[in-house]
Amino acid sequence: MKYGRVDVSGPNECPEEGRLPDAGPPSPADHLREVFYRMGLNDKEIVALSGAHTLGRSRPERSGWGKPETKYTKDGPGTPGGQSWTVQWLKFDNSYFKDIKAKRDEDLLVLPTDAVLFEDSSFKVYAEKYAEDQETFFKDYAEAHAKLSNLGAKFDPPEVCL
Question: How far from 36 is each of 22, 33, 147, CA to CA, in Å?
Fold first, then answer.
């Protein structure tokens, strides 16, 4: 973990906001790479970060995807509704990869950028591994999340790393 992260003084110092992957042309895999490669992330990190979909849910009125509610979200905490990627959508684990691979439940959300993790040969290597090995997923996710979180960050003093 790095200490000494320096906050920016205003929005003019922030990088321009980019769009989250939305399965744009020419394909979901190409779009994921276009979005994440420009940040210096690789295929392994893209797949690991996609595993964050193990948490939460999507609402059709906000995302264009999902059902208004499902058997998993109709009585959920907070505002009920939406469609989750996993049955236990408040638990961080590797069920996202297991559920996409199994393709077994129409109440679970699978976006084109989710499905492509098991269709693209480079992504599939990691998605298969994470479906089988939760500890490897946790390790790789933590590393990719830290890398993503520190993109463009300034540290003072810059050489301090613990």
Answer: 12, 5, 12
Note whether residue 15 is domain-resident. Answer: no
Give me Rg for the CA atoms of the chain.
17
Note the helical H segments in 5-133.
28-37, 43-50, 60-63, 95-102, 112-115, 121-132
* Distance (Å, whole) CA 161 – CA 154: 13
Q: 72-116: per-residue pLDDT in tens?
A: 777 776 666 777 777 888 889 999 999 889 887 887 778 888 889
Residue 155 is assigned to a structural domain of this protein: no
Q: What is the pLDDT of residue 57?
A: 78
Residue 65 lies inside a defined structural domain of this protein: yes
Question: For the segment 9-53, what is each residue's pLDDT rounded down to a tens digit?
Answer: 777 766 566 555 555 567 889 989 988 998 899 999 999 999 998
Tokens of 30: 């190409």
Distance of CA 92 to the CA centre of its chain: 12
Domain of residue 85, CATH code: 1.10.420.10
